[in-house]
Amino acid sequence: MANHFMLETEVPLENSGLRMTTEMEYKITVARIEMAARSELEAHVCVTFQIERAPISFQIPVFLSAHDFDDTEMVQVARNALHRTFMELAAASMDWELPTAELQRLSNLNLRPAKLAECKNPCGKILV
Question: Domain for residue 48, yes or no?
Fold first, then answer.
């Protein structure tokens, strides 16, 4: 069972003042479902989701009580828990978002050293 969804974001075009919309496709699949004994008294089911968007790929386990839901409900409940987790992460990191002007300012900073190929040194020695 795979879910694909598109996330559209606006990104500024370099030094133009214009914006373009990029689409990022995420592929979310159920990687595995397995019994996980967290304690001797309570059995749990672990539904592991595989999340992919090139070049990034990672897995997130969701633990559910094996006694609360039957087999046909497990994936639906795990998907709900995954959604809730991402919503909580988004809320917790909301103040991390930078305004476009700050992103542009950071993009314009050039703190990296010049490439050696750009240095005009006929002797081939590294100058400090």
Answer: yes
Residues listed for the chain: 128
Q: Is residue 39 part of a domain?
A: yes
Residue type, 39: S
Could you give the CA distance from residue 21 to residue 23 in angstroms, rounded to a whole number? 7
* φ and ψ at residue 92, rounded to 5 degrees: -70, -25
Give a yes or no: residue 61 inside a domain: yes
Domain count, the chain: 1
Write out the residue range of the structural domain in which residue 47 sits.
2-92
Give just the sign of the alpha carbon dihedral 85, 32, 6, 18. Answer: positive
Please say if the pLDDT value at position 117 is more than 60.
no
Residue 9 has a pLDDT of 45
Grade residue 71 by pLDDT with cuts at 50, 70 and 90: confident
Q: What is the mean pLDDT of residues 103-115?
A: 77
Cis peptide before 99 (omega within 30 of 0): no
In tens, the pLDDT along 25-52 reads: 889 999 999 988 766 677 889 999 999 9
